[in-house]
């Protein structure tokens, strides 16, 4: 285990290490993308590809994007489910994973799940599991059946 100071407990750090062992890639679709305001968190990580998700998500904009997994989208809004355009990075270290969790407010603000990209690659993706948050969102841009966060 690498040395990392509080606020993480030993058990939490073990969970992060386990999750990194499960998958060391992350799919980003908003401010973490290349040349966006939070992209510096991934500066030591390798950008593997620009791609889309394989599954559909609802995507909204509150100044940063909220992706909603299909499992939290009510049936009457399932028509909003489309792939999301983003980038996949190979995380360079557990420290990067901890920084991403901190930025995304995992697990209280965003949740993260392993998803499959259109190219078949697996990666962690941060998403909002609270559909009630969708009421605060502006629309994102839908281009040829793919959600694109409109701030770039």
> Mean of the pLDDT scores?
91
List the helices and strands in order: HEEEEEHEEEEE
Low-confidence parts:
1-5
Number of strands: 10
Instruction: Give the helix proportion (percent range).
Output: 10-25%
Which class do the helix and strand fractions yield? alpha+beta
Radius of gyration: 15 Å
The N- and C-terminal alpha carbons lie at a distance of: 38 Å
CATH architecture: Roll
Strand content: 25-35%
Strand order of the largest sheet: 2-5-1-7-6
CATH class: Alpha Beta
What is the count of distinct domains?
Answer: 1
Biggest β-sheet strands, sense, barrel = 5 strands, mixed
Net shape: globular
CATH superfamily: Gamma-glutamyl cyclotransferase-like
Summed up, the helix count is 2
CATH topology: Hypothetical upf0131 protein ytfp
From the structure above, extract its key features:
single chain; alpha+beta; Hypothetical upf0131 protein ytfp; five-stranded mixed β-sheet; three-stranded antiparallel β-sheet; 10 strands; globular; disordered N terminus
Task: Characterise the protein shown here.
The chain has a five-stranded mixed beta sheet with strand order 2-5-1-7-6, with no helix packed on it. A three-stranded antiparallel beta sheet has the order 4-3-8, with no helix packed on it. Strands 9-10 form a two-stranded antiparallel ribbon. It has one domain (10-148): Hypothetical upf0131 protein ytfp. The protein contains two helices and ten strands; from the N terminus they run H-E-E-E-E-E-H-E-E-E-E-E. It starts with 9 loop residues before the first helix and ends with a strand. It has 152 residues and is α+β, with helices and mostly antiparallel strands. Mean pLDDT is 91; it is low at 1-5. The chain is globular.
């Amino acid at each position: 285990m690498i040395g990392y100071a509080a606020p993480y407990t030993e058990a939490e750090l073990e969970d992060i290490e386990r999750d990194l062992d499960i998958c060391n890639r992350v799919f980003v679709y908003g401010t973490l993308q290349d040349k966006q305001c939070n992209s510096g968190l991934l500066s030591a990580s390798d950008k593997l590809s620009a791609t889309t998700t394989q599954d559909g998500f609802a995507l909204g904009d509150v100044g940063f994007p909220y992706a909603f997994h299909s499992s939290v989208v009510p049936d009457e809004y399932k028509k909003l489910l489309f792939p999301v355009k983003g980038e996949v990075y190979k995380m360079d270290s557990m420290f990067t994973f901890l920084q991403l969790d901190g930025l995304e407010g995992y697990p209280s603000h965003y949740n993260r799940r392993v998803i499959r990209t259109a190219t078949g690659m697996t990666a962690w993706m941060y998403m909002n599991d609270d559909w009630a948050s969708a009421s605060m969102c502006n629309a994102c841009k839908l281009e040829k059946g793919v959600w694109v966060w409109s701030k770039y």
